[in-house]
Amino acid sequence: MMPETKILIVDDDEASRYVKARVLARCGYRVSEAAFGAEAEKIVDSERPVLVLLDVRLPDTSGIALCRELKTRHPGMLVLQTSAAFTEAGDRAAALDGGADSYLVEPVEPEELIAQVGSLLRLSRAEQELRALNEGLERRVAERTAELLEANRRLAEESEQRARTEEALRHAEKLDALGQLTGGVAHDFNNLLTVVLGNLDAIERHLERPGFTKARVEQLALAARQATQDAALLTRQLLAFARRDVLRLEVIDANEAILGFDNLLRKALGERNVLDLALGEGSWLLQIDRTRLEAALLNLAVNARDAMVLGGTLSISTRNTRVDCPAALPSQARLAIDAPGADYIQISVADTGQGMTDDVLRHAFDPFFTTKDVGQGSGLGLSQVYGFVRQSGGFLTVESALGAGTTFHLFLPRTERAHELRPGHPEMDEAPGGTETILVVEDNELVLDFAVDALTQLGYRVLLATTPAAALDILVGDEPIDIMFSDVVLPHGMSGIELAQEARRLRPGLKILLTSGYSGGSAIDATPGERIPLLSKPYRLSELAQRLRETLAAAEAPS
């Protein structure tokens, strides 16, 4: 029983209404009575009873119709339909279809009435509890959803803030690396320029003195030339790190290359250190720049020598290996791990030196980063190794620990091409000349003056152009031209390569020699199947003369 539960009895039979009211009142229910439908509606609206005992036949309306109306206005209210006249199964079905929760045939025994009312109230209470439980569950779900949304929002904000912080840190690191790179370049180039300018100034002063000697001028000029060559080497090291240098590719056997280079490696290590070679049998072939490979190994050997202060062993080993996922290899530091899964020749260089800390290892390949004293290293050695491996299509890993030495693993891609011998080009100091007509295309005034003066001294007839447009104007004319000598980087939106292609279209078979300060190769791809000879800057007069004669003597260029 529910204390103070309101029950409305609607019945036009006063005696029946009285009996039902007395029975329910004795059970503790609060009972209201109505004899008409209209009266019942007013009591329902004002008192909101939990249960209505509603007779089917009323003087002013149908109990079934009234039930339907009450259920429409108050869906949660219980209706127990009663009748002494309509007792058939169809009558009960009609009442239940009208919305009644149950049907009771009169006359009714008090126990049955109490049981029916109690059952309906228990059902109502269970429905209310279930409804409250559902509402509470929905509220808790909504609250938890709101909490999760807020947590996700905070997480998104934190992630965004972390991303901004990391980006700022990366930007600061880039600026720091750029500052270190700029400072290192400026330092080394200023040293070299000091030598060049100082010796040129000394030559001028010496020439002004009476009785100057040729030997002293040659000595000063040699020092300036050596500084210039060192500057060119420094530039190529930077280009190697930036992967802008052109590789002189040839198919080699890694074991043969290392064995042919071991004497220089032993000299670089010094008498205090030992070189141990463990070269695997049946080594696959590589298509790489042999000179750059030797330079990389030499750089690693020199670093190992400096790390083995009291002497030690440098071990170089090779083996064929298949690497499906470079990023999955165990390593303290990985570089160029976006290399594809493939067959690689692994060249491992391990020393027994003092090793590197994690902080040093993180910056080991940064240009001009060095732990050596001032003047003992430029800091470009490892960055050049990185540039070479990266440009060769490979990757490298590093393992190091204080007191446990350092091991570099160079993974260079295997080639299926056959082993071939590359003809050498001996250095030539002589400057062979000629009488042909050369079109020189160069936008730098100082370089243009040098080239024109050098070619004139060699006996050539020279035509000048400082822009691609000026060169094309000459090419479309009737002026005889034997060869075009052009810089690769030109102003006004046309490169030297594009100019060469247009020149070949205008003059099929025209000989062309390109020059560039960005590359150290001997030729450059112009069109599919065609490579144009390339002379790298800076170049000497003898080198220019020799490359011109080689280009002029080459087979007819394709049209």
Report on the architecture of this protein:
The radius of gyration is 49 Å and the shape is elongated. The chain contains 15 helices and 19 strands. By secondary structure, it is an alpha/beta fold. Helix 1 links the parallel strand 1 (6-10) and strand 2 (30-34). Among the domains are: 6-108, Rossmann fold (3-Layer(aba) Sandwich), CATH 3.40.50.2300; 249-415, Histidine kinase-like ATPase, C-terminal domain (Heat Shock Protein 90), CATH 3.30.565; 437-553, Rossmann fold. The strands form three sheets. Strands 6, 7, 8, 9, 10, 11, 12 and 13 form an eight-stranded mixed β-sheet that branches. A six-stranded mixed β-sheet has the order 15-14-16-17-19-18. The protein has a five-stranded parallel β-sheet with strand order 2-1-3-4-5, with helices on both faces.
Explain briefly what this protein structure is.
The protein is of the alpha/beta class and 559 residues long. It has 15 helices and 19 strands.
